[in-house]
Amino acid sequence: MQGTMLKGKTALITGSTSGIGLGIARSFAAQGSNIVFNGFGDAKEIEALQADVQKEYGVETAYHGADMSRPAHIEAMMQFAAERFGAVDILVNNAGIQHVANIEDFPVEKWDAIIAINLSSAFHTTRLALPAMKAKNWGRIINIASVHGLIGSAQKSAYVAAKHGIVGLTKVTALENAHSGITCNAICPGWVLTPLVQQQVDARARQQGISNEEAKKGLLMEKQPSGEFVTPQQLGELAVFLSSDAASQVRGVAWNMDGGWVAQ
């Protein structure tokens, strides 16, 4: 869907070189927003991605490779975005990693990394984005949480703790800015077929000696009643809605898009 709703705005999306973050970046670019990409990847591939988005949507793009586990990197990225485009109007905190193990076996360094990237990074980007948003009296902060921000799953202690934390941070950010033109909301996806989830599907297919399609179905049917994956494009369209004037009174919400997962 092409439009001009966000023309002249700048959106910074963490972890946006693939998966959900890239889907969201494309949806914002389709509405005329300039894009600041962030994430890991091959430098040439990222350059090609930027060129592709610029050409397809006629917007400007920039890239900063900040490591989201490091506050100094995050500060440098936010400063870079402000210098390049004047300010960050729309901040999407999407960067995340996962590790699966029982609590007593959970490597401490994995716990620390997941909390740093999935939770603390959003605090740092938010605190650095808010002053410019307050000066304009307009801003959108969208935190990509997860159904695991609303419910738990075994073996995902760090991830579930971080995502519950993101939902809490979202509420506080929304309340502190309730009398302004700045909103903060969380999106809580269920299973999305990203490269990260595809790895889980592949592993399942190998372990059970079944086809990739059967592994996908098995994964979905355990949790997601629709039996279908959520797409990055659908999440992008929801993020665009949350950035629109129509959503100016949607504040502090954790909005799940999960094929019925949390309804059970």
**Share of residues in strands:** 5-15%
- Rg calc: 18 Å
Low-confidence stretches: none
Q: Largest sheet, described in full?
A: 7 strands, parallel
What CATH calls the topology of the largest domain is Rossmann fold
Q: State the total count of DSSP E strands.
A: 7
The CATH architecture name of the largest domain reads 3-Layer(aba) Sandwich
Which CATH class of the largest domain is shown? Alpha Beta
Give the integer mean of the pLDDT values.
97
Strands in their spatial order, largest beta sheet: 3-2-1-4-5-6-7
Q: Count of helical segments?
A: 8
Specify the helix fraction band.
40-55%
Classification by helices and strands: alpha/beta
Kindly report the name of the CATH homologous superfamily of the largest domain: NAD(P)-binding Rossmann-like Domain
The succession of helices and strands, N to C, reads EHEHEHEHEHEHHHE
How would you sum up this structure, described in words?
The protein is an alpha/beta fold and 264 residues long. The protein folds into two domains: 10-190 and 230-254, Rossmann fold; 192-229, no CATH class. The chain has eight helices and seven strands, in the order βαβαβαβαβαβαααβ. The protein has helices at 19-30, 43-57, 71-85, 108-136, 157-176, 195-208, 212-223, 232-242; strands at residues 10-13, 34-38, 61-64, 90-93, 139-144, 182-189, 254-257. The protein has a seven-stranded parallel beta sheet with strand order 3-2-1-4-5-6-7, sandwiched between helices. 43% of the residues are buried.
